[in-house]
Amino acid sequence: MAQVSLLHLIRASMGQPVRHNVMLFGAPTGQPGVTAIIARNRDLGWCLLADHPDNPGVSVTNGAEDYAEAVCRALECSRDDLAWYELDSDGQFDELHLHGAAAGFAPVLEEGCKPRSLEAFSARVSRLPAALPEEAAHAIDACLARFGT
């Protein structure tokens, strides 16, 4: 059975570190930032870094490597244990390629699905070891609701 984790992150500027966007007792602050939704089955899975449309800090597009590092530190896993995706500030899904010096991006494409859509993302992760657990699907829906979709 897949384990789902949610991390609320924020990075005020490129010169600042990524920090957990939570209050002392662990609840989210409610301040816009980045939500990491992670689904893992044993040690393998996927992570969606979801930008809030009103994120006042560094976007996933500009800080993907550092957000990924924060996720891996929190979960004590390797970057290679997860397939990486972005929900950008326009509400579109992209693949994240984090194996080089800088992040690369590509639209999530699946046959019979609108490119970069929730449908394409769902089809993609459903084939991965952790699949798409219901808890993760609800978290993604909550992120998409920020865009009015």
Question: What would your notes on this structure say?
Answer:
Strands 2-1-3-4-5-6-7 form a 7-stranded mixed beta sheet, sandwiched between helices. The chain has one domain. The protein is an alpha+beta fold and 149 residues long. The protein is built from 3 helices and 7 strands; from the N terminus they run E-E-E-E-H-E-E-E-H-H. Strand 6 and strand 7 form a beta hairpin. It is globular. The model has no long low-confidence stretch (mean pLDDT 90). The protein is 25% helix and 28% strand. The longest helix has 16 residues.
Helix and strand layout, with pairings?
Elements: E1 3-10, E2 19-20, E3 34-41, E4 44-51, H1 60-75, E5 82-87, E6 93-97, E7 104-107, H2 118-126, H3 134-145
Parallel strand pairs: 4-5
Antiparallel strand pairs: 1-2, 1-3, 3-4, 5-6, 6-7
DSSP summary: helix tally: 3
Which whole number gives the mean pLDDT? Answer: 90
Which series of helices and strands comes N to C?
A: EEEEHEEEHH
The shape is globular
Number of strands: 7
Secondary-structure content class: alpha+beta
**Can you list the strand order of the major beta sheet?**
2-1-3-4-5-6-7
C-alpha termini separation: 29 Å
Strand percent estimate: 25-35%
Rg, Å, rounded: 14 Å
Counted up, domains total 1
Q: Uncertain segments of ≥5 residues (pLDDT<50)?
A: none
Helix fraction bin: 10-25%
Describe the largest sheet.
7 strands, mixed
